[in-house]
Specification:
Elements (H helix, E strand, L loop, with lengths): L3 H4 L4 H25 L6 E5 L5 E3 H15 L4 E6 L6 E2 L4 E9 L10 E8 L10 E9 L3 E7 L5 E6 L5 E8 L7 E4 L8 H12 L4 E2 L5 H11 L1 E5 L12 H14 L3 E3 L19 E4 L1 H11 L4
Parallel strand pairs: 3-5, 11-12, 11-13
Antiparallel strand pairs: 1-2, 3-4, 5-6, 6-7, 7-8, 8-9, 9-10, 13-15, 14-15
Helix pairs in contact: 2-3, 4-7
The structure holds 6-O-phosphono-alpha-D-fructofuranose.
The site of 6-O-phosphono-alpha-D-fructofuranose has 11 residues, from loops.
Main location: cytoplasm
Cofactor: Mg(2+)
EC number: 3.1.3.11
Amino acid sequence: MATKENSGSTDAESTQKTVNAVLDAVARTAPEVRRGLPGRRIAIEGKNPSGEEQKAADVYTDELLLERIGSISNVGVYASEERASGVDVGSGLSVCVDPLDGSSNLEPNAAMGTIVAIYDDDLPASGRDIVAAAYVLYGATTTMIVARSNKETVTEYVIHESGDYQVVREELTLPENPSVYGFGGRVPHWVEEFEEYVSEVESDPSMKLRYGGAMIGDVNQVLTYGGIFGYPTLTNAPEGKLRVQFEGYPVGYILEKAGGASSDGRKSLLDVEKDDLHARTPVYVGNEGLIDDLEAALADRY
Ligand code: P6P
């Protein structure tokens, strides 16, 4: 495990160099991930640390990314949703990965993603320790969205079969007029105040449902069209389903950088504090107005 003095010792320049190397490794590995999917739809023995079924594709992607990211200098720890604890790979930054977010979408051949969060501190880190967050979306094409601490805007790349990648959208910001919404969890398990909020959203004729079952695909719809995605607090799971370190922080960071907002129902996702690497949190991201309305709707609960 990287020690505090190590993880805090990287200066700004070496931090950005390491961030570039990690993002380059993730982009260049994406085509290999994609090529390895067809033969790996099967579930394997065992569960991930969150108690979820693991697919061969999850393990394959995780092992590829550990090998590529773990060999980058100034990366101290590689942690993943598929591993109980971080792997000590040297000293420096901490990299958290959800290797194949939405892998249950493999069988129906729907969108999936790889999520990366890079922290300049020990794990479990704070959302305010993020120095870069990114996600690869395996859709009709393969794209990568990147937000960095040293840049005020979000960049979208397309990744080619060769692993080369190029910018397709610079200064990506959420459209001002939102038009899509998508919320996870079973409706009978939504809390009453959330159900009322969703009815309000649904009554807006400009809003339409977009929910694909993989957060990255759904968040990318919000980033493209404006709107809100949420995996809410549930009556049978008050902390929701999504993991803070691997999903909540990085997606919250990206959406806030793109001019939107994030929340756990009360405050920015980046201010959620948990002391367990695999802790969960309710996740809501999207246009500021929609997030403000959500927090007002849930205020009576907290
Ligand atoms: P449900 C995928 O398993 C995931 O972690 C997220 O990518 C996605 O938003 C959510 O779970 C989907 O959960 O309960 O709708 O299957």
